[in-house]
Specification:
There is one protein chain. The chain has helices spanning 39-51, 71-76, 91-104, 124-132, 154-172, 188-192, 207-218, 244-259, and strands spanning 16-20, 28-34, 56-61, 81-85, 109-112, 137-141, 148-150, 184-187, 223-227, 229-231. The chain has a single domain (8-258), classed as Spore Coat Polysaccharide Biosynthesis Protein SpsA, Chain A, CATH 3.90.550.10. 35% of the residues lie in helices and 17% in strands. It is an alpha/beta fold. α7 (207-218) runs parallel beside α8. The chain has an eight-stranded mixed beta sheet with strand order 1-4-3-2-5-8-6-9, with helices on both faces. Strands 7-10 form a two-stranded parallel ribbon.
């Protein structure tokens, strides 16, 4: 994918700044979206460095002001690049920004995990292995055999297993068990597919996550789930950017929108 590619010219990305801290070393990238994650992201990045994972780490920053992703620290823990969104949008805008950069850099696939320390970083290597085996979309699941759900709030469990996963599974034509989980892997071919058209302004909040789940199998890509561990802290506030009833209703609306084809580009399969 190059700047001269006709489809690349149609991409719509939020305004952002790019700070490269090192050269490309691997064929796959690990994208971590963050905004003011404090010590959680710093501990996570230290764990990633210690695990010696086969990925280049890319931080997709939504505009942190807490100093947690300052360049000096990121360089110390081996992060390759920090992209800082300066334009509008939330998570989906951060992901569009980061995925486009990864494709432009020539990566063969992207693994994404949250930056709040809930995921087991050692599983990243397994995502890469599945992508190398030809899968277009790999969904992490705490509910698959071998997966672990630690201290998950009851409302999260019920919402995921009884509402979110069934809705998106029906729309995807393939059963998934943990569709709210942001620990995923995508192949280059899938993200760059013009029939997907992932780089549009319609993806601003959480829509892109749900849309990518629905479309992969429908477009003929191999998909699978991978058991992972997802741990919520004990005795602390739940790490989340989804707050209150209004936030949950907005999430439901975006879920239904993805399931009903609201975000599908015109004239696609």
């Amino acid at each position: 994918m190059t700047s001269s590619d006709p489809y690349r010219a149609t991409w719509r990305l939020p305004e952002h700044e790019v700070l490269c801290l090192g050269p490309r070393r691997y064929a796959h990238a690990l994208v971590i979206p963050v905004i003011n994650e404090g010590g959680r992201i710093q501990r996570q990045l230290k764990e990633i460095m210690a695990a010696n994972l086969p990925v280049d780490v890319v931080i997709a920053d939504g505009g942190s002001t807490d100093g947690s992703v300052d360049p000096e620290f990121l360089a110390e823990v081996g992060v390759r690049c920090r992209l800082t969104k300066t334009g509008p949008g939330r998570l989906s805008a951060q992901l569009r920004m980061a995925y486009a950069w990864c494709l432009d850099e020539g990566y063969l696939g992207v693994v994404t995990m949250d930056g709040n320390g809930k995921d087991n970083v050692e599983a990243v290597s397994q995502f890469v292995a599945r992508l190398e085996a030809g899968y277009g979309y790999v969904q992490g699941s705490r509910y698959q055999p071998g997966g672990v759900a630690e201290n998950t709030p009851l409302d999260r469990t019920l919402g995921n297993r009884c509402v979110h996963a069934p809705i998106l599974s029906l729309a995807a034509g393939r059963w998934f068990t943990d569709t709210t989980n942001g620990f995923r892997g995508y192949s280059r071919d899938y993200l760059a597919d013009p029939r997907l058209a992932a780089f549009r302004d319609v993806f601003s909040n959480y829509e892109l996550l749900f849309y990518l789940t629905v479309r992969a199998h429908r477009l003929g890509y191999r998909v699978c789930e991978l058991p992972v561990r997802r741990s919520y802290p004990v005795g602390e506030a739940t790490p989340t950017k989804i707050g209150g009833l209004s936030g949950k209703l907005a999430l439901l609306s975006q879920t239904l929108g993805a399931a009903m084809g609201r975000y599908n580009p015109p004239r696609t399969q």
